[in-house]
Amino acid sequence: MRDNPALCFPLAEYKRRLTELRERMQERLLDAVVISDPENLFYLTGYQTTGYSYFQALVVPLDGEPVSITRELEASNIVHRTWVEEARCYTDTGDAIQELFYTIKDLGLENKCIGYERNSYFFPAYQQDRFHYHMQAGEGNLLDCYGIVEEGRICKSQVEIELMRSAALATEAGMQAGIDAVQAGATENDVAAAACAAMFRAGSDYPAVLPYVTSGPRTMIGHATWEGRTIQPGEHVFLEMAGCVRRYHTAMMRTVLLDEKSAAMQSAEATMIEALEAAHELIRPGLMVTDLDKCVRDIICHNDVGAKLITRVGYSIGIAFAPSWDEGYIMSLKQGDETVLRPGMTFHLIPWMWGVEGDKTCGISDTILVTEEGCESFFTLPKEMTVV
User: What residue stretches are annotated with the Peptidase M24 domain (predicted)?
Assistant: First the structure.
């Protein structure tokens, strides 16, 4: 491993991550793993690019230096961003999977047990089939090693938490600017532009997902965002965004009203804040996910304004590339999950309300860190709905 002043973290942090990965490889009786998930590659090496739709991988043997495989254009990211010493490149007219097989063969691993991430978005089935075909020539065994890196990612180290604190400052700056931009006659684009500009000026890198900005009846559309609609007097605006620093995200929902707070919105606001406060009081190491889900879900579902909680109550958050800012594939807060919370876990809690009075969606959310004694928020921005 080579030191590199451009690394996100000290080299010792990456050595720890690699050592712990190899311990899990030994537990699973794997001689090597092929890591292709963009978030996992970033976690292990610091490698990042927006060109991750092209095949890229890190071959990690139990002993010896890992080898990176990437498109030739992306090789500069290995040099400038990572500690990896050896990179094998393929051209745009080359064969990425053949390069992967040759690398495994050169490392003397073609007859060994090799894990690979079957769930990786950017290692599609047709490429996996070709990988299996090439490996048939030897006596090796290909096994799914899904989760082997994620086991290390679920609890954040202190240096990761500090990056998330920086991301939280950018999130709050973007949210406050978005709130301030809401007024009758402004467009959703105006609000999004203000939020993005403030977030980026506050130090955010490009987030995995740009802010969600919807107004009036459009708030009922799941995962919709700005479309040029003009905000009308008396309506409400739903905002959700995540700032990002070195690929680490923190996310937040808020709601803005362009009228006096109706009885229904007062009730919705009180219910969401009650759910967040109850979650804060309950969260601690050793708590089962299903108990946290029940706490939040019971409060939200027993509302008097006709709203529903139609999703999980939260999800792990941290490293992310598009198409999503969450780590819900590692851990989601949902019914029946008996996983226990541990210090260092970070979650976006989302006790939002879909269908207030049948035609409005509003949200108040929080990103929290599980501590040794309980939990703490990354944010200081007021939770209450803003009335313009």
Answer: 162-372
